[in-house]
Description:
Blueprint: H1 3-6, E1 12-13, H2 19-32, E2 36-38, H3 46-56, E3 64-69, H4 79-90, E4 95-100, H5 111-123, E5 127-133, H6 137-147, E6 152-158, H7 166-174, E7 178-182, H8 194-203, H9 207-217, E8 221-222, H10 229-237, H11 245-252
Parallel strand pairs: 1-2, 2-3, 3-4, 4-5, 5-6, 6-7, 7-8
Helix pairs in contact: 2-3, 2-10, 3-4, 5-6, 8-9
Amino acid sequence: xxxxxxxxxxxxxxxxxxxxxxxxxxxxxxxxxxxxxxxxxxxxxxxxxxxxxxxxxxxxxxxxxxxxxxxxxxxxxxxxxxxxxxxxxxxxxxxxxxxxxxxxxxxxxxxxxxxxxxxxxxxxxxxxxxxxxxxxxxxxxxxxxxxxxxxxxxxxxxxxxxxxxxxxxxxxxxxxxxxxxxxxxxxxxxxxxxxxxxxxxxxxxxxxxxxxxxxxxxxxxxxxxxxxxxxxxxxxxxxxxxxxxxxxxxxxxxxxxxxxxxxxxxxxxxx
Length: 271
């Protein structure tokens, strides 16, 4: 069974969602049919996400929940306790996927140290799968060496029509590592693109549906965020939209290296 069959390809992202807005958004996402919820320690909303999951009444085995360990916990002292704290906030006995949020440990810890803790979290039953986020090709290779073949479930990276990240995606695919694309709308930029708008008009759908369908056409999981029920419903409908090879290629050609997530602790991105 491939990774694509294990993770719902369309998920609900919770970056920048807080308090009641976060709770309502996650509840609505679950109500309209989403079963993959993505959060992180640094988002500060794990407790709210957990409450929405609990109040939804959806059986745990129908959900796929991801969280990520922040860079100040990438060490032997803080890693496992931080994961247990995340689980307490989420109200879950385990997450389905645990990621290293950024390959940028705050105190310069080695990858061997923090990936060793990640592997320990899996052995301890705190997570079903483990993976990475924002790792470059070189870092993926180092992680594969440390963790062993087949252990990296996904590399969650920024992917949208203005940053297709094709070189990294290809490398991961060649090594059996699934890609989860975040920020699929490039903070709304690509939703105004003329090429995407023309494709949307031809299909009688929204530009958001076209963008999501493009990500899914490439076999990616993607985690758009929305606070409106109508947009959540539209995003979910994108799974039924099939783009032609020509349409996919036209969107591929929009790549311009327009990265949205580039904090000062970012790795040296692949060209």
